[in-house]
Amino acid sequence: MSRKLASIQKIKAIKPIEGADRIEIVQVLNWDCVAQKGEYQVGDMVIYFEIDSLLPDIPAFTFLKGSSWSQKLNKYKISTHKFRGQISQGLVIPIHKLREIYNQINDTSFSSIDYDEGDDLTELLKIEKYEPPVSNGPLGEIINHEWYVPKTDEERIQVCAQDVLPEYMKSERGDWYASVKLDGTSCTVGLFEDAFLIGGRNQWYKDENMYTTTVKKYGDIEKHLRDYQKLTGKYIVFQGELCGPGIQSNRLGLKEKEWFIFNVWVSDTGKMDSYKKLDFLRFLNMCNDFGLPHVPIIPVGAKFDFKTTTNIDETVEMLLKYVDGIKYRTFFDDASPNQIAEGLVFRKNDMTYSFKVVSNKFLLKGGE
Fold first, then answer.
1. Which of 73, 105, 129 delimits the end of a domain?
2. E strand residue ranges, 231-337
3. Are 221 and 189 in contact (CB under 8 A)?
4. pTM of the model
5. How confident is residue 69, by pLDDT bands cut at 50, 70 and 90?
6. How many Cα atoms occupy the beta-carbon half-sphere of 226 within 13 Å?
7. Given a cut of 80, is residue 10 above it in pLDDT?
8. Among 129, 155, 176, residue at a domain's last position
């Protein structure tokens, strides 16, 4: 699922910032953003840009030069910031600026643009998603092959709270699981109708590189997958996080690169759009059968309690505080004792509802 990096939203609430005379908090969905005091009222329609958005260099965004300009990217990068002790996540712009921004980006002169609450403006405004650079040796030749399984991009709780939290708040602890979000780079490996492929987040690779070399540490996966397909008729694809030296500062403290599975897909045909995600139990069994490590799972006794409150906004705040206490050292012996985990991914066991909660403390300390 692609993110709505830019969208039409409504101001949900306005809250003061202690000791601040000129700024206040405006809430969009379940995101808190710092804005000039008095600029917005509850119910106002706005353009909202999520964190990780890359905005083009146009006159309408020049006020961001001091805080968000990236010389390297030649774009404005929207990140998590802190003002007067208050976390601000995202950028809110008055709705009357939409026509001006659209015209500057697209070099047109439209007089008006129709919109409704929730409309996705990402493509309309040519907003790109920031992807942390991964550079650990040459990647070699790229294989031009379609992407038969969905790419990984779980929605953050601030975006989808109203849709997913009611399902968790009425369920039992045994109905869902939470896995640790590892700070690495995505790696997908699997058998398709016409090929066995190893790739990163966006490309399949032919030559030896950090993806192919790391995957081969776990045995002849291609042979195992082909043998499994002959025996069962099923095509299997593994998605996981590649972590270790040279990747995202190696916050897990690993001695060498490792691959941790978080999704397993299965298909009867190996064709486009035919793959289904395995449920939690079969996911664990498949990792075990192929001898592949999976992402750490939060123990039952340490799981979040969704029964504490019936208020969705309070639950979001509690979840954000909860993940701030998750440390990589709990799961990886050589991680720094103080290294906060990137966050957690929550999923129903049958994979019907899922979301991620990213630690604000992690983001403020330099995590992407």
1. 129
2. 235-243, 258-267, 276-277
3. yes
4. 0.91
5. very high
6. 8
7. yes
8. 129
